[in-house]
Amino acid sequence: APEINEALSLLQHRGQDAAGIVTCGPGGRFYQCKANGMVRDVFDANSLARLRGSMGVGHVRYPTAGSSNHAEAQPFYVNSPYGIVFAHNGNLINTTELRAFLDAEAHRHINTDSDSELLLNIFANNLQATGKFRINEEDIFTAIQGLMKQAKGGYTCVAMLAGFGIIAFRDPNGIRPLGLCSRNSPDAGSATASSSGTSSPAVGHGKDYCFTSESVVGDALGFDEFEDVKPGEAIIITRHQVSRRVLVDQSAYEFAPDIFEYVYFARPDSVMDGISVYRSRIAMGDRLAVTVRKTLRARMETIDVVIPVPDTSRVAALQVAQSLGVPYREGFVKNRYVGRTFIMPGQSVRRKNVRRKLNAMAMEFKGRNVLLVDDSIVRGTTSREIIQMAREAGAKKVVMASCAPAIRYSNVYGIDMPSRHELVAHGRTEEEVASHIHADLVIYQTLPDLVESVQECMTTVQIKRFDTAVFDGDYVTGGVDEAYLSSLESLRSDNAKLKTAASRISQPAGAAPTSGSGGTALVVGPPGEGAGDGKMAAPPAMQASYVATSGRENTNGNGLILPGGGERGGKDDEEDDGAPTTCQGPMNGADDLALHNGWSR
Ligand SMILES: O=P(O)(O)OC[C@H]1O[C@H](OP(=O)(O)OP(=O)(O)O)[C@H](O)[C@@H]1O
Ligand SMILES: NC(=O)CC[C@H](N)C(=O)O
Q1: DSSP letters for 469-500
Q2: Among all ligands shown, which has an atom nearest to the Cα of 62?
Q3: Is residue 254's pLDDT more than 50?
Q4: Is residue 524 within 8 Å of 79, Cβ to Cβ?
Q5: CA pair distance 490, 347, nearest whole angstrom
Q6: Which residues are near ligand 2 (CB < 6 Å)?
Q7: Cβ count within 10 A of residue 97
Q8: How many Å lie between the centroid of ligand 1 and the Cα of residue 490?
Q9: How does pLDDT run across 255-272, given as a tens digit for each residue?
């Protein structure tokens, strides 16, 4: 758990709404801690100490479906079959169909609006269909293969079967990223990776394994080997072996990773599908500089200084300045304690936080023609605010340059841009965008330049296509039509979210639905019995998780762990009575959630 916690803090930029860890300890019992909030708010030494076991799954959530309700915090859990814990990054586009299937045919109760809960239940239903008392890898591959036919959209998932092992898979188009890291375990163990066949017998020292959305986790936690999970591939790690298989006909699917990971979402020090995010941002800066130079020349304009919009655009902005031969200045200073504004839920909270986050240093702006460089202009929230700040600081002219082309279409695969009408460039020309954000001029990277910037940095795999739907409206999975986009807008536009939040606030505190079919009753047992190959206890030397694992088992806690006043500092030993601890902490009522997210009542 401490390592998973560390890993989640390295992935914090991918989700700030909720965080969770579930571990699997002796007897195949799951131990859970999850709540709304940043990683540092959700876990403390006490709660981590109670998360026992040598394998686990962690998640940081950035909602792209449902709401910010704590009931949708991940990982999710279902008790049947076998006891499954599940975490998902991405977004599904056929949730209506999946929900109807789970209700009418699978007879599975879905308790939240989360697409991830649906995906878990599809997986569980497919495992159930094997009808087996003990399942094996073949059964799991079959279940995931079925899921890949049923679920549409972007998904990377990590599941944990009680007492059996960790299972990870990536959608057939590889839209969302997923990597597998490994290192030699300090303890002797029995599992070893197989690169070719479907499984390999135990040999030599044991390894620790870690599935992660970004390679930075492996670097920071001392995992010396890293490989990307292939599109449509599933990997199963048990105490005995690593089994892997590509479950789709690869010729039927185009590999199309989301290019927005490189533009904005991922950390610069990560390498995804063999492409350094940092290097790709440098290349974006180089190409953007060419367009900026051409545009300024054509208009006979000059700029005096290049100023980045911290943080993401820094790498590219420095490159733009160097290419143009213009000074680079950090004109905005970022308050490091305010998170990413783009992934905050709701426009008013985003707008307020741009001001809280950035402060302009007047002397860098005064009397100058300023070129502001940002990675992307999405809703225009940031640009509008900072352009005004630049003018207030005395800038003569403000030109805004974006490393990404104009964003005119919804993202439906895991970046929360559901509503076209909220996008500042939707239905607007570049001149109209400039006037809307009060810039003297807006200069966008061209789409071919963006794609080439990323392709230029390819090392291991040749990627012919990226998901660029937010720029060109071409959705790689198909199935995204006007009817779908309109219904998505009506569900997930900022206005729709505000209405949902308002109705939740009017509910009594704690009236939120429970998460997963298992609700909060996560302790499963009885000890000594379990699923899969019948080896219940998590293997001591094999460690695997979504993000990271701990080689050492925590010894001073057990039972269901949830943070907050109700549990922290409470009784230590619930194993005997098996009673789940209820969660009454300050972050778990609907009222408190609203406060936590900064919404005003
Ligand atoms: O047009 P908008 O809707 O405002 O979205 C785009 C902005 O949001 C992001 O900043 P954010 O503060 O999230 O993250 P960063 O500090 O990592 O760049 C991004 O870097 C842009 O500045
Ligand atoms: N950012 C994500 O990966 C979101 C996962 C899932 N769609 C949710 O809303 O919880």
Answers
A1: HHHH---TTS---HHHHHHHHHHHSHHHHHHH
A2: 2
A3: yes
A4: yes
A5: 16
A6: 15, 61-66, 72, 88-91, 114-116, 414
A7: 15
A8: 24
A9: 999 999 999 999 999 999
Please state the ipTM of this predicted complex.
Answer: 0.97
Q: Is ligand 1 within 6 A of the CB of residue 380?
A: yes
Ligand 1 centroid to Cα of residue 17, in Å, is 16
Interatomic CA distance for residues 108 and 545, integer angstroms: 26
241 Cα to the center of ligand 2, angstroms: 30
Which has the closest alpha carbon to 40: 13, 19, 59?
19
Query: Does residue 11 contact residue 554 with C-beta atoms inside 8 Å?
Result: no
User: Poorest-confidence range of 50-54, 239-243, 395-399, 501-505?
Assistant: 501-505
- For the CA of 176, the nearest atom of ligand 2: 3
CA of 342 from ligand 1 middle (Å) equals 5
- Domain boundaries, given as residue ranges, for the chain: 2-256+510-596, 275-463+471-475
Q: Is 308 in the pocket of ligand 1 (CB under 6 A)?
A: no
The CA 95 to ligand 1 mean position distance, Å, reads: 28
Q: Which among 155, 160, 195 has a CA at the least distance from the CA of 175?
A: 155
Q: Which amino acid is present at 163?
A: G
Whose CA is closest to atom 14 on ligand 1?
A: 340
Q: How much distance in Å is there from the Cα of 463 to the middle of ligand 1?
A: 26
Rounded alpha-carbon distances, angstroms, from residue 350 to 77, 92, 203, 222, 354: 31, 25, 52, 35, 6
| CB 235 within 8 Å of CB 180 | yes
Could you tell me which residues are beta bridge partners of residue 55? 24
- What residues have CB less than 8 Å from 102, skipping those under 6 apart? 108, 110, 118, 121, 122, 125
Q: Does domain 275-463+471-475 have CATH number 3.50.50.60?
A: no
- On whether the CB atoms of residues 61 and 34 are closer than 8 A, the answer is no
- Quote the CATH superfamily of domain 2-256+510-596: Aminohydrolase, N-terminal nucleophile (Ntn) domain (3.60.20.10)
pLDDT at 535: 33
Among 340, 426, 412, CA closest to 378: 426
Which residues, including other chains, have CB under 8 Å from residue 314's CB and lie 6 or more apart?
A: 308
pLDDT by residue (tens digit) across 375-387?
A: 999 999 999 999 9
Instruction: Give the C-alpha separation, 35 to 587, whole Å.
Output: 7
Residue 264 Cβ inside 6 Å of ligand 1? The answer reads yes
- The CB density around residue 490, as the number of other CB atoms within 10 Å, is 12
Q: Residues 67, 501: contact at Cβ < 8 Å?
A: yes
- 375 C-beta closer than 6 A to ligand 1: yes
Q: How far apart are CA 48 and CA 2, in angstroms?
A: 6
As given in the structure block, the two tokens for residue 540 are 């001591």
Across the range 3-14, mean pLDDT stands at 97
Mean pLDDT (whole number) for 415-424: 93
